[in-house]
Amino acid sequence: MTETILVVDDNQAVCQALALTLELQGYQAVTCLGPDEALEVLSSREVDLVIQDMNFTQDTTSGGEGRQLFYDIRTCHPNMPLILMTAWTDLNTAVELVKTGHADYMGKPWDDTKLLTSVANLLNLHRLSRENSTLVRQQTQRQQGIRDADLCGLIFASGAMERCVDLAVQVAASDVPVLITGPNGAGKDRLADIIHANSVLKDKPLIKVNVGALPVDLLEAELFGAEAGAFTGATKARIGRFEAADGGTLFLDEIGNLPLSGQIKLLRVLQTGEFERLGSHQTRKVKVRVISATNANLTEDIAEGRFREDLFYRLNVIELVLPPLAERQDDIPALVSYFIGPDFSISPNARAALLAHAWPGNVRELENACKRAVLLAKSARLEAQDFGLTGQVMEAGQTNAPTASSHPAKKISRADIEDALAAHNGVVAHVAKSLGLSRQALYRRMDKLGIAR
Ligand SMILES: Nc1ncnc2c1ncn2[C@@H]1O[C@H](COP(=O)(O)OP(=O)(O)OP(=O)(O)O)[C@@H](O)[C@H]1O
């Protein structure tokens, strides 16, 4: 964008010379011969910088007129960058004015190079301060929006989480589908609660289905319902979760685990609201807002034919990317004090260890570590060893990969699982806990890696 510079000088020749110099540098120059005209221009069009003389009436050399114009401009445009063109008699006044900020002075006759440098510097400074004010304003608005929202007990202190929560609160107002992506235990379920709690549907049901936790053959009956006799063991008719959520919100966790046949049905409900219970030809219709979540790389699943692309775009109208805990370190102390409660505190050593840990199981792992620390603590001041942190620590300078659906969540390796199985004598509940995974997530990972159950 071309920046506009207003030149105010009672000498027409000076105006023309300055305008030419500025225009040759790509600025747009507007000239006027006195203060009244200058103030009129400033009130009627966008100006980015003013170059002004200090005296406008013949035989006046006090600089008083220039000072008056300076303050008149400042009254209406407090941050307007200004360059004062001074004769030696005005120097003291100019120096005094420059001290108020956003201003510079140039002795007459001026040096073109110095003048252009000063113009560029002031414009740059002005741009930065404008950008900064925009950021501050946006942050204040965000914080206000978040303050007014129901955060369902979510604890956070990091900017990354603030942005994520802000987006959740904003999208809550509409009824578009939201896909929450992020690693296990990072708080995707919590974010779904926030979206529902701040939506117009907040008094309607919020139904949650962990798609990954259900056996494939029961999943469709669970989602869409089944008539009696629809499959072995279905002795009576059951309504599905879509019907239960009618008028409200349905949260589909671990959506990446939905088999292809279920994906087709889900796509149809999202498009038309229609579906049939298993074993029935009667078409039913519901109005449900769908929030889904995944820790899987759905774009990879699409490329490998495991997930329908059309369904992905339906679910993913808005994507909320929840960063891993290791990428939002400011949340760690806040979460720790919440989980250990007011009767406990942590030593500086413990704090350092908690910040250095890589948290592959994210907040769930942190919550478990805190519970353990509180149980085993010998005093109210918790030490690093009370948290039992073994295994992964963040390497210096490490930043984990982003968790957008195009990037996989941090992997728990075969060796991690085998080590944990050995350490916990194969007790899956303990292994899952130590890795910060749900039992189902652990089983799925073991199956994928070919580790015997
Ligand atoms: N910011 C937070 N403040 C308080 N508790 C949190 C926060 N984030 C997560 N938790 C707690 O951590 C645990 C795991 O969170 P949640 O179930 O929401 O994670 P998730 O990403 O849905 O995990 P999964 O992918 O395994 O389903 C829960 O007990 C949840 O209440």
Structure description:
Residues 4-123 form the Response regulatory domain. Pfam families: AAA_lid_14, HTH_8, Response_reg, Sigma54_activat. The modification 4-aspartylphosphate is found at residue 53. Residues 154-375 form the Sigma-54 factor interaction domain. InterPro entries: AAA+_ATPase (IPR003593), AAA_lid_NorR (IPR058031), CheY-like_superfamily (IPR011006), Homeodomain-like_sf (IPR009057), HTH_Fis (IPR002197), P-loop_NTPase (IPR027417), Sig_transdc_resp-reg_receiver (IPR001789), Sigma_54_int (IPR002078). The chain is an alpha/beta fold. The protein folds into 3 domains: 4-130, Response regulator (Rossmann fold, 3-Layer(aba) Sandwich); 159-321, Rossmann fold, CATH 3.40.50.300; 326-449, Helicase, Ruva Protein, domain 3. 45% of the residues lie in helices and 13% in strands. It is built from 18 helices and 14 strands. The strands form 4 sheets. It has a 5-stranded parallel sheet, with helices on both faces. A 5-stranded parallel sheet has the order 7-8-11-6-12. A two-stranded antiparallel ribbon has the order 9-10. Strand 9 and strand 10 form a beta hairpin. Helix 5 packs across helix 6 and helix 16 (414-423) crosses helix 17 (428-435). The longest helix is centred in the first third of the chain and has 36 residues, at 112-147. The protein is elongated, with a radius of gyration of 32 Å. It starts with a strand and ends with a helix. Residues 396-410 have low confidence and may be disordered. Adenosine-5'-triphosphate binds next to helix 7 and helix 15. Residues 154-156, 182, 184-190, 253, 295, 335, 363-364, 367, 438, 441 line the site of adenosine-5'-triphosphate (ATP).
